[in-house]
């Protein structure tokens, strides 16, 4: 059981939960995640570990309401307990001083990518951050990312905040006057795929953090398999970060939408 010691709503559909998990807080490295199950009847939900407080023995998670299980998880309050929190899982992100680095994030991926951006900055990189959201009310982690970024750019699809448009357009414009040695992208599949196509012709090393359908998180079920460089990989044990220029994004899109009808039906219950 993991007790929730803090809860904040970042947006009407996004909750930040700080939970007691000392064993995870002690071992977690940048890029790793955990799987939570809020009660014995709930499905297992993979969540990035946004932050840790080793002294307090807590980890910070961010939950976006997308369906039945995430809604119930986000409805928990301070003092409530989560039945299972398994982690840390996945391979730690390889972080080094690449030189000129950029984090490109979208939606809930901005929260997931924040610790990676912080890790890049701590490694000595000059960090450019480009983040995008559908609308102003969905903006999250702006202050935290501004604090660690040498250059910070934000966009919204509807133009209600920042630049009106897509993060890829900002990235293309940035590259007209700046060089980049490394790009890390976290967000919706179409966004990550588009970022890869911007950096591919320039030969910029680009990594993406993938969150496909996942069940056990230990490589046993095969639900999170992805194709990378023509080979089958498992996001839970081989990832979650992969070379963006080798990921089969078309197959990833297909697999990610396999259970959408069932998810919609369950969310409406």
Radius of gyration: 18 Å
Count of the domains: 2
Name of the CATH class of the largest domain: Alpha Beta
Strand-pairing-aware structural class: alpha/beta
CATH superfamily of the largest domain: Nucleotide-binding domain of ferredoxin-NADP reductase (FNR) module
The assigned CATH architecture of the largest domain is 3-Layer(aba) Sandwich
What percent of residues are in strands?
Answer: 25-35%
The number of distinct helices, counting runs of at least 4 residues, comes to 9
- SSE succession: EEHEEEEHEEEHEHEEHEHEEEHEHH
Strand order of the largest sheet: 12-11-10-9-13-14-17
Number of strands: 17
Textual characterization of the structure:
This protein is α/β, with parallel strands linked by helices. It has 2 domains: 88 residues, Elongation Factor Tu (Ef-tu), domain 3; 110 residues, Rossmann fold. It is built from 9 helices and 17 strands. It has a 7-stranded mixed beta sheet, sandwiched between helices. The protein has a 5-stranded antiparallel beta sheet with strand order 5-6-2-1-7. Strands 4-3-8 form a 3-stranded antiparallel beta sheet. The model has no long low-confidence stretch (mean pLDDT 92).
Summarize the structure.
The chain has 269 residues and is of the alpha/beta class. It has helices spanning 22-27, 68-74, 109-122, 142-148, 167-175, 189-199, 235-238, 249-256, 260-267; strands at 2-11, 14-20, 33-37, 45-48, 51-53, 58-64, 81-82, 84-89, 100-106, 126-133, 151-156, 163-164, 182-186, 205-209, 225-228, 231-234, 241-243. Helix 5 packs parallel to helix 6.
